[in-house]
Amino acid sequence: KSFLNHTAYLSCYFPNTEKTDIKDLRVFWQKGVDEVVHEVYYGQEKHDNLSPKYINRTKMDMDKWTLQLLHAGIVDEGQYMCIIQHRDKGSPKVIHASECLLHIIANYSQPEIARLHTGELKPNEYLNLSCSSSGGYPEPKQMTWLISHENTTDRLTRHMDVSQDAITKLYNVTSRLNIIVPTKTLINISCLLHLGEQLGSLVSMPLGI
């Protein structure tokens, strides 16, 4: 995983138990079947075969056998393969191949609750609310409304509208809630954006009614 516009680190997982000199190895990274991402040709970096979008964006750490991909973008997501060949009696022989899957993460803004109408709140009338969060990646799982009164909290899941920017590929999400204004008790309303198991959740500031 890598954050958007940060450096992604892709490991070759090459143990090099034979302690082979880099000058006897050809190391190349590719994405998919036809994009060459980086190539080290018997100790020298070679740029002739690189896919244009990776030029000046990669660095190889020879000690850790790790590729650094600078300014990682959402288009860089996907499967990468590291292939290492040994110069064996003139004809190169593959001695190692491994795959690495890159996921890009962009932080969503803190969810924010807005009232969709103005004017005085009257008991037993409907209050229309929206909750929005923007500029994140990947697409979130769902949005949950939390309604707390006295010692209980109700969880309500409503439809989440999702839009994706055509250029940046970042997501904006919005959910709406209609709720009856309480007559006697104070209630606090928050909304929770679920980003997925490994990414956790974001919660809005509570709105008191």
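(the above was protein one; protein two follows)
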Amino acid sequence: MAGKPKLRYAKGRGRMESIRWLLAAAGVEFEEEFIETKEDLEKLRNDGSLLFQQVPMVEIDGMKMVQTRAILSYMAAKYNLYGKDLKERAWIDMYVEGTTELMGMMMFLAFQPADTKEKNLALMIERATTRYFPVYEKALKDHGHDYLVGNKLSWADIHLLEAILMVEECKPDILSAFPLLQ
């Protein structure tokens, strides 16, 4: 039996957080080795562990995987969170890409200058409530299940929950118009 996946990233949520969420939802224990110094990162780069010279990196099944989307796709398939067929995977991919866009807007808010942060926060909230959340609410309503795809927990549901919680940090009542997402 293979050991626990080992996650390597800086201390913080960032791009590793979705990977943590997926593993937790799958009930998979994992180890984390934090990159705390520039030297820690350089060591990984110099020993050839980082295909594109950047993290996150996950060691799993004898591989040193990089690129968040590739890691998540692999894990979703490995842990049966990626649909039962190609059609379900396509729906999961579409939903995940939508939440990834929304989460990207959120992640970059912290790095914006104060004079633009408020405007961009308002734009993110507007897009969440008019572009993204209505899609997920409609999906749940149209097929009458508790999950976005099929009637089983998938990567899309996990990713959506993470996105909702990120947005709620900025606007706690954002789901007031979305009872099925609540």
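Reviewer note on protein two: Strands lie at 6-9, 31-34, 57-60, 63-66.
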